[in-house]
Amino acid sequence: MVHDVFVSYSGKDKIIADSIVAAMENNHVRCWYAPRDIQASEDWGKAITNGILKSRVFLIIFSGNANQSQRVLDELNFAISKEIIILPFRIENLEPDGAMGLHLSSRHWLDAYAPSWESHIGKLIKNVSIILETSIDEQQIVVPAHIEKKYKQQPKKLTRILAGIAVGVFLITAGWYGWSLLNNRDSENQELSVIDTSPLQESLAVQEPGTATATSTIPGSDDSSDGEVEFAEVYDSVFIQDLCSSDTYGCAKIEPGQTIKIGISGPLTGENASWGIDAKQSGLLAIADSVDLYGFSFELISKDDGGSASGGATIAKELIADPTIVGMAGHTFSDSSRAAIPFYENTGIPMLSPSASNPDLLEQSTMVYNQLVYTDKVEAFAAANYIFDTLDFQKIAILHGGYDYFTELATYVNSAFEAFGGEVVAFGEISSNETENQLLLTDIAAVQPELLYYCGFSQDGAMIVELMKSNRLEDVVFFGYSGIYGDDFLNRVSENAGEFYLATLREPRESDAKENFDAIYLNTYGISPGILTQYSWNYYDSTMILISKVKDISVLGEDGALYIPRGALVTAVRNLENYVGISGTYTCNIMGSCNLEGPQIVKVLDGKYAPMD
Q1: Cα–Cα distance between 509 and 550 in angstroms, integer?
Q2: Which of 33-42, 526-535, 586-595 shows the lowest per-residue confidence on average (mean pLDDT)?
Q3: What domains does the chain contain, in order, with CATH numbers?
Q4: What is this structure's pTM?
């Protein structure tokens, strides 16, 4: 199908792009628009290039976000190479730089930043119709009600007022309204410090000559490092109804006095309780660091799903019954995540798992599921590649812990190593009985592997390392999976355990943010992050990302309630791009995989882990 316009935009401007596409299609301009026009099983890159080739006009929604987006630049480069008509629609008053500036500086612009981009929608549609030679009378252009309502009320707004940092009362008088704000905040508030104050809120009626009383802006979130206070636009019931009725899932409505809830779920009891406890503790620090949104605070709802499928389904049913739950920073385990996905898919609750890694979670063609960690297939490939190419081993044995997860990971390593040209001389499951494991290792020694790969619980892995010394395997290298990384494993093996490696998460790079988080975690819980699990920083980032996306798309109604369009939030999380967290930098692909770095290989040297890459 041939389209009129290919719409290129930064994922951070998704709400604006949605409105522009809606306006053009209301006026019979056919748009190609990702991710809407990409099929679930379709290759993303191929779909984008086909979309550009089948469109007559390339519309770039230019903003500061688009200026920094590699995706937008790649799309622009391809469109230029195919001699597609380029139409920049500039929604912010700034010049393109770098390669973007090279491509756009000589082109005709549609400036759409004063007083707002909404007021230029009609001009955009008119220009597109001229290019398409389907010129439309401006009087016939239909602008969606929620867009028209917004720009026609522009003169009534207090667009932005800055509150001072020092303690005091500032009286601001402008035309027909006035208000005062008491702001008592520390101007040197550092990133990751616990913030327990919120801006004073005050809603004023603005009376303009010849008009009815309208709702103005109110002090919103103090979300800046310099103590500035953003002021929220307050939208009337017509806008809210239009916004929520057009959203795929409708809106979550947070009434005054309620909190915006982020869920997190993992095993809080039993042998894997450290995972759930670490997730909860890191998530609570993220909540403490979050700044109130227009006076609405965030709350973490932590649940114990035992890490099982049945537990995941049970918790999901419980959480979706609460209309103030808007996002899930989990579940932490793959089995519980898999069982929970259908419930969140039906209700429009985005998931961002910090630690679930089973590849089939990303292969379910779901829009709500995303993950910060690489998949087991990626880890298996990295391990097999390092063993075969770097360590130059041709023959390995593989042992696993018996659970489905361990069996699948071991199978992935087996397949990857054989694909490289190596030979797996033994593949087996360990026992809880030490004598049986002695016999198992004796059989493995007989086939003379150069390396033993293991995936299972850390205590069993340490036992295997110790038994290798007494079963003619003392010269065989031990290679473990990511789950046994940590002080627990090191403490269980003796200093003369021999040479061994692990494939694991990349350690967070040192930064002020990490240093602050580490200190607060230790002071709060009496233990350093990374001890309970290696995912402490992921758990924090997962919660923080969801909070940031809620802030990006929420609107405040004149009834005092906060409205969060669920479908827009699902899309905003999936379109995450270049988010710099403590644990890494994340960009989500079309499947919801947000980790682009993959694992690192570490070697144990002098009782410590040493990164090898």
Answers
A1: 27
A2: 33-42
A3: 3-152 (3.40.50.10140), 156-232 (no CATH), 254-365+512-560 (3.40.50.2300), 376-504 (3.40.50.2300)
A4: 0.63
